[in-house]
């Protein structure tokens, strides 16, 4: 059994070929797709966050809106770039969204990916300390965020406040109990996965790793997952973490599927360069259900993970993406023991 959800980048473009032509379209259709996914029996609705781009840049209003319109589906991000975040303000937003959804938030965070602009976090008012890097700044923000999510008081109260204070030091409000254990880190390497375990975060691994050892992507990712679990055991945490992987998977069951993806199934990984280093990109899957079942059964990383996030082509619209989810849940997942 696996948790199966979707992850959307929330692209929009003012093109006649897109079903998503504005930011309003992207936001409202994201809500509609989450509602449809819940009705289909999917387990998660996740959204990528990119700044300075025609994508979803401010996740918490969206997550809160989805939380208010749904009742069961997990709601998350994959991932929020912590270089841009005020960790205390973020803790307030996250706590509010989690309470609105009755504890369904699964918040993926990370150092972030290559940006649309040069050092965009500086425009948001954040600059690495002297002698430090932007990645180290992201981890510092993360440390503060994780600490305040514990709900412990740390701020000295005003002796003459506008409203009465509870006794003792004050904490960030609203506090949502349990949210601390539903934070994920988007890890791009095996070493970062081990660091994620040490910090007590769930592991989120996508369709690329920023290293290449020459083995197929799914095997390298499976090794990353095993290293995470080994490091988790060594750290001695008293709860069981979760692991997600992302994949592009398209069952070809009707004419639309064949028209969009019939010639695009790529059974080979891609190797390239990202941020000046080698990177390995995982393959996509597009085939008739019987063939998909055979191919997916060989993916060692999917087998090792408890959560599978399907990257959806959101610009094709809500109806088509709901169809893709339904096809996988109906024609593929049961044969693989995922349902």
From TrEMBL:
The keyword Oxidoreductase applies. Keywords: Monooxygenase, Oxidoreductase. InterPro entries: Bact_Lucif_Oxidored (IPR050766), Luciferase-like_dom (IPR011251), Luciferase-like_sf (IPR036661). GO terms for molecular function: monooxygenase activity; oxidoreductase activity, acting on paired donors, with incorporation or reduction of molecular oxygen. The keyword Nucleotide-binding does not apply. One of its GO terms (cellular component) is cytosol. Residues 8-257 form the Luciferase-like domain. PANTHER family: BLL6902 PROTEIN (PTHR30137:SF15), LUCIFERASE-LIKE MONOOXYGENASE (PTHR30137). This is Alkanesulfonate monooxygenase SsuD/methylene tetrahydromethanopterin reductase-like flavin-dependent oxidoreductase (Luciferase family). It comes from Propionicimonas paludicola.
């Amino acid at each position: 059994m696996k948790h199966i959800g979707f992850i959307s980048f929330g692209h929009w473009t003012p093109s006649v070929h897109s079903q998503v032509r504005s930011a309003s379209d992207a936001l409202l259709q994201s809500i509609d797709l989450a509602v449809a996914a819940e009705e289909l029996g999917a387990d998660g609705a996740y959204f990528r966050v990119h700044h300075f781009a025609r994508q979803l840049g401010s996740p918490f209003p969206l997550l809160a809106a989805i939380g208010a319109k749904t009742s069961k589906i997990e709601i998350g991000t994959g991932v929020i770039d912590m270089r841009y975040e005020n960790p205390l303000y973020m803790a307030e937003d996250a706590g509010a969204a989690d309470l609105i959804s009755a504890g369904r938030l699964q918040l993926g965070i990370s150092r972030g990916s290559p940006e649309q602009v040069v050092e965009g976090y500086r425009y948001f008012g954040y600059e690495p300390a002297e002698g430090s890097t932007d990645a180290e700044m992201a981890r510092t923000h993360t440390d503060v965020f994780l600490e305040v999510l514990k709900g412990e008081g740390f701020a000295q109260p005003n002796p003459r406040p506008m409203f009465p204070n509870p006794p003792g030091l004050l904490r960030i409000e609203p506090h949502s109990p349990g949210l601390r254990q539903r934070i994920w880190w988007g890890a791009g390497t095996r070493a970062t996965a081990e660091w994620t375990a040490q910090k007590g975060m769930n592991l989120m691994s996508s369709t690329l790793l920023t290293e290449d050892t020459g083995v197929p992507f799914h095997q390298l990712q499976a090794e990353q997952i095993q290293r995470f679990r080994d490091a988790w055991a060594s750290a001695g945490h008293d709860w069981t973490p979760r692991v997600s992987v992302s994949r592009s998977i398209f069952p070809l069951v009707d004419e639309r599927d064949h028209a969009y993806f019939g010639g695009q199934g790529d059974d080979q990984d891609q190797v390239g360069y990202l941020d000046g280093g080698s990177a390995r990109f995982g393959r996509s899957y597009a085939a008739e259900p019987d063939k998909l079942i055979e191919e997916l059964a060989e993916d060692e990383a999917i087998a090792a993970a408890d959560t599978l996030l399907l990257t959806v082509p959101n610009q094709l619209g809500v109806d088509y993406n709901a169809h893709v989810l339904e096809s996988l849940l109906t024609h593929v997942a049961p044969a693989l023991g995922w349902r």
